[in-house]
Glycosyltransferase
Amino acid sequence: MFKENRAMKDECSDNYLLEIVLPTYNRPEALKHYLRIYKKTFEGFLSKILLSVHDSSLNDDTEKIVISFMLENRNIRYVKYPTDIRLDDKVFEALQAVKAEYCWLCSDGCIPSYKSFCKDIYPILKKKKYDILYLSQQDPYNTNLKEYRDQIPFFKECFWGMTGYGGSILRRHIYGNITEGERERVKTRYSEASAFLYPCYIYDYICSRNFFAVHICSEFYDNNVEKKTSSWMVSGSALYIWGEVLCKVIDLLPTLYDDEKSFVKKSVWTNTGLSSWRRLLAMRSYGCLNAKRIIKYYKNGILNQISDNPLRFAMMLLIPKSVAGICRKLYQSRKRMSQDNESINAC
């Protein structure tokens, strides 16, 4: 079993209502900005929220930043991991070590919105009524505040939103009570899950257990301006991760979900915006969409599994990669200007 190395002895108690679990890797500036905003905006909740940073960076820059914040904030916990640990393994370790009643697995690219937390999350969280709070910023099925006790509609309507970090808040027991045997069974079954082990484990767990969940729709996050483009986009592996791997792990889920698996595969691309022209242009600009990949995934049926209109992937080949890059940069520039204007108007 993996042994974690801690930068400081853990002096946290079990009295926190929520633990924000934050995996990070080689992004010290993004994390520094995250911590600065978090400290400033969540100051009134520091006695109720624990922030745990789980770092496997290649150098100690991130560690120095976190420890500097820890000197003034005892509600921050830092755990150092080997640099070669798989993301899924790190997340599993982190969630099993949660100290609070609830845990919220988040990305360092998105900073929780204080306004939304106060208005939409905290009033529900403090009741300690639900096992899972499913969070989304879109509501494609008009299910805001819908409660779930049935696995099938919860899978059909919510799986897409739980593929990204930040999409759910879990009661500690969901990960905390897992036995070593169960853990190894899940890791073996979903060994090729890549970044999808988190939602796969949740749906595997509730398959044979009673659970109580609620959907909350709100603007939960603000973008971290220091976070760079996702590695799966820059590396050109978008179709592999969100196409081949996603379809494979959904097929591996328990047979209870079989009737809805085809629907769910397409819902991930539709509801997350991956199949939008803007995101496809971005994929084209980074080399994720080229003739070799599109032909491969058309022949093996992946494109038909993730989209009702696989032709749009082929249409991207008509746009030169350089032109797609210009379009992407223009959009990013326009988005930054819009955010700047919003900031000015808010002042």
